[in-house]
Amino acid sequence: KRMEAATDGMQFSLSPRNHVASTQSNTGLQGGSTLLASRAGLAESKTMLNTQFVRSSPPKTMQYPAILDEFSRTLAAPYGEELYHGSNSGRIGAHFSPLAAMLVWKAEHKCLEWRAQQQSKDRRGPQPEYAPADVLEKAFEGEKIVPHSPIDLELREAKLSRRMFHGGMLRYRYYIGDGIMACPECVRVVCPTCACQGVMAGLCNECHEDGVTWTSCNSCGGRGTVAPINPAWIDNAEHFVGLERFCQDLPGDVVERTLDEVRAEMLDNYLGASKKAIADYVFKDVKSRERALVPFVPAPVPDWGSVLFVGIEGTVGGPPDEWRAGIEQNRDAIVRSLTVCNQSSLRLLKLWHGTGYGEMLLVDLPPPSAPLQDIDRFFEKQRARCREAYKRLDLQWFEEVRAIIREENLHLGSPTEARFFRSISALLSLQTRAAVSQSVAAFVEFFRRFSNPKPLTPAEVTQLKDTDERQNAFLVIKLTPRGDEIRLKHPPEVVSEKILKIFRELVVCLNEIKEPEHCLNENSVPEHRLQGTSANNKEKFLWATTLEEQYVQQAESIVESTVNFNMANVMESLHLYDEYAHLLTEEERVREFVKDSSKSIEDYLNKYKSLRDLDLAIRHKLPGEIRTQLACVDCWELNESLRSKIAECIRILLESVASVNLERNEKLCKSFDNIVATLNKKPGIALELVDLEQNLEQFRGTTLKELLDEFADIRAWQNMLFESEHLLTPKDFTATVASAFWVHTIDGRMNTRENELRVDRERIELQFKQERTRFEANLIESLNHVNKFKDYGQRKQMDEYLEKILALKENFESAKFDADKYREREIMLGWDPSEFEKLTEGIEKLQPYDDLWELVYKFTNEEKKWTRGPLFSIVPETVDQAANGMAKRAMKLQGFFEQSNLPTPASVAKKIKEDLDAFKQHLPLLHALCNPGLRQRHWDDISEAVGFAMEREQAFTLSRVIDMDVHLHMEELQQISDSAAREYGLETTLESMMEQWAPVNFELKPWKDTETYIVNSATVDEMQGLMDDHIIKSQTMKGSPFAKPFMEKIVEIEGWLLNTQEIMDMWMKVQ
């Protein structure tokens, strides 16, 4: 309950009656005993358990939205956050009259402009509602509305329900009461400094002059919206009633009390009248009434100027005598200067209203019974009417106007001529603007025919019977296919754009009609009458009708909204074709469907039936036209297009089956032809015989069954075509008959061919036996030639032996190939394959002789190259490896031949081994002299050691060096060569270090926006790694005993590395 008291009913509570009862009981128990309180609490708990909880009414801040801006420093400023934007004075001025509400002051242009119409925003959250019926009934219990009373008749005429009337009255009474904060203390302001009463601005003049600051009211905190009452009003009221006369005989205390009561009553009346005036002024704005849910203002004060003022002439007895002469004089002056009232104006009015110009419309709107037309036709028709009307007014009517003006005798050539022409221009402008206005009204009224807010949807239209009434329409819009979509030929935006363009053109089509003053023919008017028209004779036009005028914008808004919501309804007709739109691209899917060879007959039948069902659905379900409000949707062409798409898809589907069937029949016949042609070949060899036998067996086992199944499947597909009522061509039937003929005759043909193949087998087997016998005799002869090599041992006949070995190897290779062929033929004929032992024996015996004489040939050539070739082109390691390898092969061959008791070839192998061992004794000398690290200084040492000059030149060979006894100084040569090799290693390391630094880039990158650069971290890491590695290597090389020739370069590189490392360390510190 404390929460309820604090939040003013914002929490969930009991129903209102139970809530009141519980509150009263609680109040009564406050002074009771503890026992009574506990019993009351128990009773209340039971009541709460047995009572249904309901949500309490929202607070008054939600029920009654504020109509004044409480945060504004201006008193009684209307609330404008959601209504208008601008200053407080602008919002206050907007309520002066309905027309003033449409104006706004534009500071940049320093003028008044029409306020741009704002779209209403969707309100969210709780919305104000009328009070419940029981509350209204209780509030107006003593104010019953008697049937047929004036107020009852007025409510019926205004189409206001009793609930709306009572609810609005109750809300209006709230707003003129508690809805507007008016503090009596603020109204009767007392100076907080000197307690002076009746102060207007919060401080009396004396305190204000002394610089005293105003303090807010203690009662309301300065939030009151009613200005303080003028104390002069109270004084005047007391003076008018003669209060002093009545108070002469009364005691002083009674007088003071009476004066206080009278002043309090005056103050209450002032507050009530001020609140009502503020509320009535705010509720002049329609949006404010809608926001506050106050549909009307009861007994509003008439706007200034809305009630005619009864002047002096309307007083009883007329004006006083002393005024009559002045009135007559002023009346004569008005008649002379008032150029509006003249004969030309009357004739122009008669011309406009009496000859049909006044009833002329700038649009040619079709009646309800007119035939439907598309938007292009309607657009061109209205544009032609605008042009026709303009020409009629500009050529015919304007000539008649000029003829009337030429006959004006009173004002032409007089001082009032300029005013006369201005009045005539004003009259003509009003007439042309009236033509535009009535055309706009007719245009709006035309579209009001289609303003039913709940028109029948296209789906509902399709359900109408022939006897049902159709909706009003004047446009026809076709449904057309575009690509893979179904669209309106004229989309809603196009229709809306063209209709609004028509509207705007009719509004401005008469804006270029010239003023008559500047178009009069000078020859037809006397010169003295045109004296005022010669100067400033610039071409001017009658007053234009602009698109920014209020009634034009309102009319355009009505037309636009009507067209838009109707065209939105028309767009719903597209949804009727949602399940058929895929037919526009169905042909592509059908073509993809027929390309899929995995589709079965059932799949094709389902596809065919689905297409036929769609065709029937389009024929029976989709109407030829959908007559919605404002526009009739023409569907004939679209329906026929969709049906043609279906027919094309069915044609593609069935013709693909027929085409495939024809192709399969032809392929089946060709298969039978090919099989018979293949099996009827005469076999010349075993391979052909076996192939024919296998083909025949395969044909009987699997191929024939596959072909018969293929024929059965072809017949099933053909039956499907018959069921689908597809017409077959004679070519289709011929192919089917040919396939059937093959199916019925193939078995007899295969039996005959099987008997013929048995005779062919016997003939081919006999031929094969004879060929194999001749092959085995050739193998025995080749083996005898191999056995002769045991007696060959002359190295001079090496080339002859190698040629024989090569010929035998070729014979054996050919024999191996032929042996494989014989085995294959034996296996094909069903025999066990032969081993051909003589072939294997010959190959195995020939291999050692081949290895021996190949080794002899290789050693002979290599020895000549090593001993007689250029010494310094020899690679010692390669020679060492080759010599050792040949020595091992010779030793193995010697052992094999000795073990096989073949002394002649064994002696050849032994001799090769001895020659190789003798050559290997010179390998150390070869290594010492062919060292790649030898430099000139080393050759100088070598020359000194051997006793004669030696250099790296082509004239030296190994045999020459041996003949010069260089090998006798082998120890000194070995030391010089080892030293050169060590120095060569150091030199290679130095070159490698320099090569590693060549691709290193010292990369810098910008540092943020400082226009300064820093070293890239990747560069630092790469350089640091190289420097650490190379510094260690350079220091190691300095300690080597062989570094003397490169010491200067090593020191230089080491110094550069240390210097670079120091620079990088310093750079990284400052970076």
Q: What is the 3D form?
A: elongated
Unreliable residue runs = 1-38, 521-537
User: Which strand order do you get reading across the main beta sheet?
Assistant: 4-3-6-5
* Amino-to-carboxy terminus distance: 72 Å
Radius of gyration: 62 Å
Query: What's the total number of strands?
Result: 8
Structure description:
The protein has 1071 residues and is mainly alpha-helical. It contains 36 helices and 8 strands. Helix 24 (636-679) runs antiparallel to helix 25, helix 25 (686-723) runs antiparallel to helix 26 (730-787) and helix 26 (730-787) packs across helix 27 (798-828). The radius of gyration is 62 Å and the shape is elongated. The chain starts with a helix and ends with a helix. Residues 1-38 and 521-537 have low confidence and may be disordered.
How are the elements arranged and paired?
Blueprint (H helix, E strand, L loop, with lengths): L1 H6 L8 H13 L5 H17 L9 H4 L24 H6 L9 E4 L4 E4 L18 H7 L10 H9 L3 H14 L8 H4 L17 H5 L21 H10 L2 H4 L5 H31 L3 H7 L28 H17 L5 H12 L20 H32 L10 H32 L9 H5 L10 E10 L2 E4 L3 H17 L41 H22 L14 H10 L5 H21 L3 E3 L2 E5 L1 H44 L6 H38 L6 H58 L10 H31 L8 H32 L7 H24 L3 H18 L2 H7 L6 H11 L11 H6 L6 H28 L6 E3 L6 E3 L1 H22 L8 H24 L1
Parallel strand pairs: 3-6
Antiparallel strand pairs: 1-2, 3-4, 5-6, 7-8
